[in-house]
Amino acid sequence: MILDKHISVWNNCLNFIQQNIEPKQFKLWFGPIKPVSLVDSTLTVEVPSEFFREYLEGAYLDILKAALKKELGTAAKLVYVVTPVQRQQSLVYPAAHGSAPVNKTISVETFAKGGNPGPFVFPGIQRIQVNPQLNPVYCFENLVIGECNKMGFTAGESISMSPGKTAFNPLFLFGGPGLGKTHLAQAIGIAIKKKYPELVVLYVPANRFKIQYMDATNGRNKLTDFLAFYMKMDVLIVDDIQDLQSPGSQNAFFNIFNHLHQSGKQLIFTSDRPSVELENFEERLLSRLKWGLSVELQKPDYQTRLNMLKARAFREGVHLNDDVLEFLASRIKSNFRELEGALISLIANATLAHKEITVDLAEKITEKIVGEQHNDVTIDKVQKVVCDYFNISRDELLSKTRKRQIVQARQIAMYMSRSLINCSLSTIGSETGGKDHATVLHACTTVNDLMSTDKTFRQYVADIEKLLVPVRR
């Protein structure tokens, strides 16, 4: 059997490499590599993941160069391609990195630099290439779906099929850090570009919008150009909208919002809190943020965390035993970001130290990341500690009684839930006898006020916090 030239060259390279490194390392790092093609002196090989390629070049670059030079001469080059990831029925696995979406060039009416147009001077037309700022990694194929984000995913799919034509306009996604708000918002934009390539999509963090606004106000007629540009968008995605607090930028955004919404364009926002809790926002803007659909992304449950770990390990081309994945999923509960960080740290540590990935190693690595957080502080935990401290029952705490001691205990429980867990007001209220967000907000304000004026009350809060804080370290 006559082997293709690229296979033959790579096999010869492997024979040379095998003689110069340990058998175990050879099997681990060169066994998975597959030769793809040979064009002139350029050999293309396929590797399981980007992480695999980075480590290979970092640890074995010299021996690779020597092997290739021996086979192909001084002009030899090595090109890598990453193994494409396949989709499986039981889980949506991360896709390979695709190409970034591209917008068409748009025409925007602009005034000439330094111009001061009179009533009879018409603006010029400038053709602008708009970068949608969408990361192809943040696509629906890479999103692990669970109860924590199913509603947002369903709404996002519906929007991507008919942007601007559903009842979900605007779509307001909110939740704590690391829960996938940015990923979901960008996934919608990517899906829209895939189905409707002619539409102009733009993702922008609120802080960048605010900076662009401030730059526009420093130049004559630049604010007009700024507004004209944003009013040309078909889909506008604003991330971390809670950062849009300056009155001037809010006023500009209000006008952009009105124009796009009335024109049937799709608006998508993300926030670290629900719209009712946005501070220093104009009421007219808040009311518009509530027009469409608000979706809270919650902490992932155990099964979703486990699925996410399997997906990311698959993407990195690393096989992990189920007991390791199950340990990580049960150990880190807060959000996807910490979970992903723990997994990558584990893989990196095992790789660089040439260790097998075991539960013991996973425990050592995660200890450095999450410390002693074996028992997360929860609303139930807060309520139990408060009830024990004041010697009252949980039924009394959650009741509607207006007895002073119980009211104070209830308010402290709400305050602690807010400050230690950072739950949304609506979540705290629903877990505290079905109170609304306004009641929880009033409780938090009252506790803050009493702590500054009442020494005894301040001691209550300090004592309860001491009982809770060791649990969350």
Can you describe this structure in just a few lines?
The protein is an alpha/beta fold and 473 residues long.
Supply the key terms.
five-stranded parallel sheet, single chain, alpha/beta, 473 residues, 52% helix, three-stranded mixed sheet
If you had to describe this structure to a student in words, what would you say it looks like?
It is built from 19 helices and ten strands. By secondary structure, it is of the alpha/beta class. The protein has a five-stranded parallel β-sheet, sandwiched between helices. Mean pLDDT is 83; it is low at 85-96, 117-122 and 371-375.
SSE blueprint and pairings:
Blueprint lengths: L4 H14 L4 H8 L3 E6 L2 E6 L2 H23 L4 E6 L22 E6 L13 E6 L20 H12 L9 E4 L6 H15 L5 E5 H12 L4 H9 L4 E5 L7 H16 L3 E6 L11 H7 L3 E4 L5 H15 L5 H10 L4 H17 L6 H12 L8 H12 L3 H5 L5 H18 L3 H7 L5 H17 L1 H18 L1
